[in-house]
Amino acid sequence: MKYLRKIKCLTLIIAIIIPMMMVFSSFITNAKADTDIPVDNYSDNGWHWGVDVGDLLYFEGETIISDAVTGNLINQYKELKIMNVSSIVNVTEIVSNKTLVYSQLNITMMYYNSTFDALVPLGDSVVAAEFALNSSHPDKYHYSAGDYNLLPLFLPLNSSGVIEWDNLTTILNETLYSYYAQMGFNNFDEKGFNSTDDSFWFRNSTDGYHIDLSYYNSYPTVNNGTLKEGKTSAIAPFGDPIEINVTITQVFDFNITDEIVWGVDVGDEFIYDFANKYDNDQNNQTYEADYNADGPRDKFATELKIVISKFNDTTYWIEGNDFFNTSTPIVFQGVYADIYFWNISQNAFVLEQSDIRIGAANNFYPFVFSDNESREGPPLLILPVNSMQSDFEFFLHDVRLQQMGFDSLNFNWGTNIVEFSMWNSTGPNLVRVKTNRTTGMIMSYLQKSMEFREEYDNYTNTWKNETSIHFMYLELKNMTYIDWAIDVGEVFYFKQFGGEHEVEIRVTVLGFGYFFDNISFYLEEFLGLPLPTGQPGLQFFSVVMGLVEHWDRELEAWVPEFVPDGLGGPGPAGLPPPPMIRHIAAANKYWAIAPPMLGGNPPMLLPNGTTGLDPEFQNLFDLMGFMFDDIQYGLNWASFSNTTAGTYMYYNFSLSTGMTTLLHGWSYRFDYYFGHFDWYFFSFYNETSVPLFPTLNTITLQSLWVLDVLITAEISVSAPGAQFIYALNAINPVNEPIPMGDDLFYLDIKITNHSLLTANISFDITIPSSIDLSTEYLYFFGWHKDSDTTSPEWGGVPQDFYDSIVYDYGTNSLTLEIPMEGPIMMLIAVGYGTEPPVTEPVNFTLTSDAGNPDSDGSFMLSWTESTGAESYLVYVSNVCITDISELLIPIASDITDLNYSITGLPNSTYYFVVVAHNFAGDTLSNCLEVIVGSGENEEIPGYNLLIILVAFVSVTAIIIKKRRKQ
């Protein structure tokens, strides 16, 4: 401590500081009492002590030590000292070369041991007072307050049982205080007494220090000559002067928790949102399904429930509560609670710890500081409701703040709410507390601190010590009281289109968790927007956790999203990486959709009861003002448009479930590859799943969007296990118009376990009367792509399909079938118009005028017209091509003539095919063999180079296009 560094020698510590702190030593004793005081040649021989062996006395003390020059505080503290009068004995000593017999009163320091519920000794016996009167002795009288105590605790009484004020004033000044004057103090040049209020006073007009003492002398119930109250303000003159202020008051029991008032009772429950994080955490997930999880306290965000379990007085050994900064015992009344953490997998609170201290206080201090008790649990959660600002200011003094790592303190002491903050202006340390004065429970608690912790490096597979910023935040649950209209175990299906990607999604609800974010920082950093007025910067969100799976076309199975490497995956040796369990919805009282959800996957769910007219719904979409200049809201929808760019977005949701039903349009996002913002089209909509049973399943398709078309499906399966998943939409879900006609509806269908089908799938479709099937045509298109290197497009259906449709003009309906063979996952568009439908080009024949063999390698390819073809492509190969899947790269494309000239082919055997193309599909010609020269292989001049260049350009175009779509 600063004080100790200023002391020049041990003599000063012993002779000045310890005397001021008469209660700062520890003792034990056993002796017999002799209360009479030996008096020789004195008129009154009935002097005695007013206490006896076994008497207990209790003194409360307050000490303030500061630099006398600067006024800077060195330390301040409060304490209770318990003294047991252990012995009163006569002692003979040679004083001033003559024998002197005096009475010696000894005490033992005690403390309350809460484990044994008893007072126990704290150390050895020490002298508390000595007194003698002898008129024949050179000194005539003698008084000592024990081992260097400036404040006498015990005064002798005369035969009348009272204090002789006049005599004792002189005795104390000449035999006690003159002794200290020899060590550096000036003599008191002013002294006196007041027998009316049983007090002495001593002054030094030069140095300004003083001592004021009052005793129990003439009180009806107490008149034993013990100290009632003592006050001193003294300057230690050696080295840098130190000012010491001490107040000691006698009390009549050792209970220092009797004035504490708590605002809670056993059984009271409080629920908190809780965030706990280190700045180098790699994983912010809130669920247990994590190979690296170590338990609830390692979660970034969760919910905890506090149930008050008991109140209990406990003795803590506290550092910094005495002059020497040693560990001293002091009693606090603790509030204990059972701690429950929210468990996502069990969807319930689970007891984590029992009888954990959440707060403790006594009459001196509003909470415990720096105790040696090793414990785990939440931070300070409760304060006494009768604590005052002055209690905190005395407790959180500058020195203690520095010891705790802070240099600043601020209070906002309101009638209903108390707030105080401690922080370090040059470092990360911060504590901010907000308390309800009615209950005393913490409403919010924020802590940031620098800590050392052992971290596991996933990349080097080693443990290492890291310096981390520990962040902890609790808030009395308020903003996350969110009702979700779904239950654990429910399964939902969605379809998502974006760029060239098409994803079937299955979501299984696993539980409800919590998410925490600095929304003020998020909005400023990522959107450049201020926090909406009236919102806190730090926010918790109620989260729906789900397992998200994608349909794999090749495996024909649902495959979960996996945790990326470095974020908890891959799994242990020999095991697959863990499934990614992620947020599928997040909301609080301010936001129906958490803003960070904007940067991830489309929102799937809103809180129960949300409408499009609610501020918490509009708060999020108002943020899109930088993308759209026209935003409108309805009861269960929002629409957005950018009149300059000609882009739009629609969002619809179910009022009954909060489920997203449609999110469709354009998003303006930053392209990290090209380094600029751009518009991207996407579509996301809810699908319906129907389990299929081993019989004929008749299913009437439901839709929120298509109300004037009635569709019934008939599906037969041989065994349980198959599902029919569909969506019936009125809006084109892809950014590509159908090739012809006006939109009627879009049908997205998928059959899982299609091998269980026993017959073709039949659809009965009733068309609205506004479309007369006897005079207008229906057009059918499928969304597909020919290969991995081509972009998807609408393709027509073959003429055979149209021929198989059965129309009923009387009911304005039709029946069609989809073959049961092969995986069934398709998006079908149905349009209508007055022109006949376009189908795949009809068969045609390829010929040439080449010789057999051809002598010069120059000849003309010719073919008959393919009805319905829009263009033709020419292919050449060294083997005969009989299927479209065998096609490589055409040597000519977009040909509208019925011939193509070939020149300069070297000797070899060639196979040619021509493909007739339209939006409905492709038709191959016959495979034509042409032999040039001997027919032996020679390289075609430029042929390989042509193939390489065409391939390079095609692949490059695809890569660039895909990158633009990211």
Automatic annotation (TrEMBL):
Keywords (A to Z) from UniProt: Membrane, Transmembrane, Transmembrane helix
Transmembrane segments: 942-960
Signal peptide: none
Name recorded for this polypeptide: Fibronectin type-III domain-containing protein
Stored CDD domains: FN3
Gene3D superfamilies xref list: Immunoglobulins (2.60.40.10)
Record organism: marine sediment metagenome
